[in-house]
Amino acid sequence: MADRIRIAADAMGGDHAPEQIVKGVVDAVNSRKDVSVILVGRQKGIEACLQNLSYPEGTIRIVDAPDVIATADHPVEAIRHKKDSSMVRALQLVKNGEADAFISAGNSGAVVVGGQGIIGRIRGVQRPPFASLIPTKRGSMLLLDCGANVDARPEHLAQWAKLGTIYMQSVMKLEHPKVGIVNIGAEEEKGNSLVKETFPLLKEMDERGEITFTGSCEAREIPFGTCDIAVCDGFTGNIVIKMYEGTGQMLLSEMKKAFLSDMRSKLGALMIKNSLKTALARFDTEQYGGAPVLGLKSLVVKMHGSAKAGEVKRAIEQCVEFYHEEIAAKITAYIENNRL
Amino acid sequence: MADRIRIAADAMGGDHAPEQIVKGVVDAVNSRKDVSVILVGRQKGIEACLQNLSYPEGTIRIVDAPDVIATADHPVEAIRHKKDSSMVRALQLVKNGEADAFISAGNSGAVVVGGQGIIGRIRGVQRPPFASLIPTKRGSMLLLDCGANVDARPEHLAQWAKLGTIYMQSVMKLEHPKVGIVNIGAEEEKGNSLVKETFPLLKEMDERGEITFTGSCEAREIPFGTCDIAVCDGFTGNIVIKMYEGTGQMLLSEMKKAFLSDMRSKLGALMIKNSLKTALARFDTEQYGGAPVLGLKSLVVKMHGSAKAGEVKRAIEQCVEFYHEEIAAKITAYIENNRL
Questions:
Q1: Quick check: A5 pLDDT over 50?
Q2: Which of A145, A214, B276, B308 could connect to B20 by a Cys-Cys bridge, CB 3.0–4.6 Å?
Q3: Which residue has better confidence, A1 or A220?
């Protein structure tokens, strides 16, 4: 097992825990030979889910954790006081070197607080962001921060631009990923004070060759994917993601209603079903695994609260990629070289 | 002509000016008897557009303005120095009592600055917001601010909640419109510092019976229309609107591609075309006229830069409604009663 990457999975976090978490984990260890998983949570519940599922011996083990951090729990309080929770125990496995990465579909705030408090930030990283790969018309775009830091300062956004660049170079193999700043207009003088103060910092980084800055990324353009990385404060980033998902869900539900409105439409819908499915599959958030918290000593990936097995499997694959690409080491090297 | 509401229209603002502005104006005066329009802009260009169009005598007149405020112009500078622009001249017609309302598809910042500087705020209104009626699954929702104030304070959002309530009671005839605050989670402790500081103010207003506050309105829920009024700073509001429009446009373009991908899909698409068109018509932004700047002494409506005749006609109808409902007088009365 020595050369397998070891993932500590929070089996209790998310709307479909533990069933779908366990199922995704089993799918992952069945489909690739370079990964093993520690399922952390209520042992009996996890064992019940594992019944009737088969997987290579030794690729999954369970660590019992009787407590659970709920979505409504206060992140700092929960991490501090729920020492026997699946999340805290799983994070400690990473801290102690028993696991290489941590995944959870649970309380986002607790994932950030626990990641920073238990695993720890890379020295010099100020505010680790959630970085989410979102599907666009042209491919995908890394949006950061997506919610870890709802009030951010210009120097945070500047650092995220570099963390995002390292990520996209390593994971998506883009040599010079284009960085934009999420904005409400194309011109430099548009935007709120945070955007206006961040703009010159990003221009300087571009001049120093640290990033490729392409200016404002208008919210309207995000679904079309006009840049590779978009930086913003965590409040804005979360609004962007939620509007993207909500609008898509609402339009699809209206379309479905239209498809069923009369016999002619029902027939037509049957005929276009396949091509429509193919076209829209790319926009299924499940395809994208989760949002890594960048800038921690080990990888932490937050999945959607609604994550099912497919997303869990993807998140595990993401961890493997992240590990092989030594992204934490690259971030450390950048920060040392630039004395950030 | 005395009992017609007189609209001053900026004939030169927007991507399709002056043709589509003029066309929308002609449609409006042809379809209703209670409105007349002053088209302000380059006289010759406007006259050329009016050729071959017919309308009741005396319902349209032209005021020449040789200069134009461009989209890229700095709002404050433009309003101050371009005295002969269509926008400044049209706003002055309202100020001088020659017109009752102003509409423009031009530079948003200049509309706000000009509206405040030339027409003037109602005494006690701190920061007039853009209020945009956006289509949702359940009907429509008033989102404010949509971009007039990109950096806002809690007391601004609180005042907008009341302005929005007056608007929705008057125009949409909702007795107790539900007010939400745009947020990234349902719980009160979620959000950035602006949201957290605004929350208690809105709760107090609810307790005093001034508004009906229903708490957080998650961005994901906006397309579904879970409240009637959503307040936020102008940066966030603009991001919400642009993401809504951008996501819709992108998904529709992907669907169209799917519909044309093979013969079977093409046939199917023909069969569902009508019901799909009906279902999506409601989400056409053109149906919604424009965004009024609330809290000015007279009505100012900003249309999309891309506005065509249909939106212009709607914006004019909106002005009539606003005028009949005496919204400015209602806002004045509220502020006097509450010594805001």
A1: yes
A2: B308
A3: A220
Which of A184, A224, A270, A306 is the mutation pick for testing B, counting most B CBs within 10 A? A184
Q: How many CA atoms lie within 13 A of A227 on its CB side?
A: 25
The ipTM assigned to this model is: 0.91
Q: Which residues of chain B make contact with A258, given a CB cutoff of 8 A?
A: 272, 275-276, 278-280
Q: Residue B152: which residues within 8 A CB-CB, separation 6 or more?
A: B127, B145, B194, B233, B234
When scoring A150, A193, A226 by the number of chain B Cβ atoms within 10 A, the one with the most, hence best to mutate, is A150
d(C-alpha B334, C-alpha B340), whole Å: 9
To which H or E segment does residue B37 belong? strand B35-41
Residue A247 CB contacts under 8 Å (≥ 6 apart), including other chains: B223, B243, B244, B247, B248, B251
* C-alpha dist (Å) from residue B276 to A330, B88, B153: 49, 42, 42
Q: Which residues are CB-contacts of B252 (< 8 A; sequence separation ≥ 6)?
A: B280
Residue with tokens 């053109």: B286
The pLDDT, as a whole number, for residue B152 is 97
CB spacing of B271 vs A258 below 8 angstroms: no
Mean pLDDT across chain A, nearest whole number? 93
Partnered with residue B7 across adjacent β-strands are: B37, B101
Cα–Cα distance between A147 and B192 in angstroms, integer? 10
Tokens of A156: 């945070």
> Cβ of B137 and A250 within 8 Å?
yes
Size of interface A-B (CB pairs under 8 A): 196
- Chain A residues in contact with B230 (beta carbon < 8 A): none
Say what the pLDDT of residue A207 is.
97
Q: pLDDT category, A339, cuts 50, 70, 90?
A: low
And the tokens for B206? 């609810």
Residues (pLDDT < 70) of chain B are 1-2, 285-289, 339-340
In percent, the amount of chain A with pLDDT more than 90 equals 76
Cut 0.90: pTM above it: yes
Nearest to B244 among A191, A224, A247 (CB): A247
pLDDT at A288 over 80: no
**Hey, is the C-beta of B233 within 8 angstroms of any chain A C-beta?**
yes
